[in-house]
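[Discussion] Sanity-checking designs against the backbone

I'm trying to build intuition for which residues belong where. Below is a structure token string of 216 positions. I'd appreciate it if someone posts a full sequence so I can compare it with mine line by line.
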């Protein structure tokens, strides 16, 4: 499945508004065209205007080289579209370990980890939540509070359609899992590289035999 098709099947639940939404509409397809997907867009006003674009590969990885590649591609398209009136600095970054949760797959991968969540409307008489993600369904997820106030139900089900913001909380368990996934990804990349080298070697051998036959 290509990146665009995957994006359609697992589209972002949490989206931007206003100018940030206009920027997201421009950068999302540009990122998809080079094998990345958009996580979120933020326009920050500290020390001048900074356009922060958070992106990743479909497997969740994002190296410094990936950020540089994405930055070059986005600079070109943003120069043409010019969605921000003021001068700004473009900053392309990875989601990080304590990443924003913007897709259903993000919540599924975060099961068992702590998260901070804000909703746009009241859910169980609250808009702010903190707790461990216990389960994810097609329509929402269950959160178990790690610091429930007196009289509050520690377990709450939050519909995806009510979400305003969601982000993982950095913990030792989260760091360990991130390191494990990174190690596994590196092994997989090395395996693929070896397989590609083997194919190249086999192709080279076949070409060599063809040349010998031609000489005969």
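Best answer:
Here's mine. Compare freely.
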């Amino acid at each position: 499945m290509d990146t665009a098709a995957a994006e359609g099947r697992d589209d972002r639940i949490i989206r931007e508004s206003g100018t940030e939404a206009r920027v997201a509409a421009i950068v999302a397809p540009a990122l998809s065209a080079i094998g990345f997907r958009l996580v979120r867009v933020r326009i920050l006003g500290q020390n001048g205007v900074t356009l922060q674009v958070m992106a990743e590969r479909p497997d969740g990885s994002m190296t410094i080289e990936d950020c540089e590649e994405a930055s070059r591609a986005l600079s070109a398209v943003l120069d043409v579209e010019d969605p921000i009136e003021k001068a700004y600095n473009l900053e392309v970054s990875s989601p990080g370990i304590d990443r924003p949760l913007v897709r259903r797959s993000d919540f599924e991968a975060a099961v068992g980890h702590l998260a901070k969540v804000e909703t746009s409307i009241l859910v169980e008489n609250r808009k702010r939540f903190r707790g461990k993600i216990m389960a994810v369904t097609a329509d929402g997820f269950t959160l178990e509070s790690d610091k429930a106030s007196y009289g509050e139900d520690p377990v709450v089900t939050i519909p995806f359609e009510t979400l305003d913001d969601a982000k993982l909380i950095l913990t030792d368990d989260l760091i360990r899992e991130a390191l494990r996934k990174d190690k596994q990804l590196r092994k997989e990349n090395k395996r693929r590289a070896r397989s590609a080298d083997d194919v190249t070697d086999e192709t080279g051998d076949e070409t060599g035999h063809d040349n010998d036959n031609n000489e005969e």
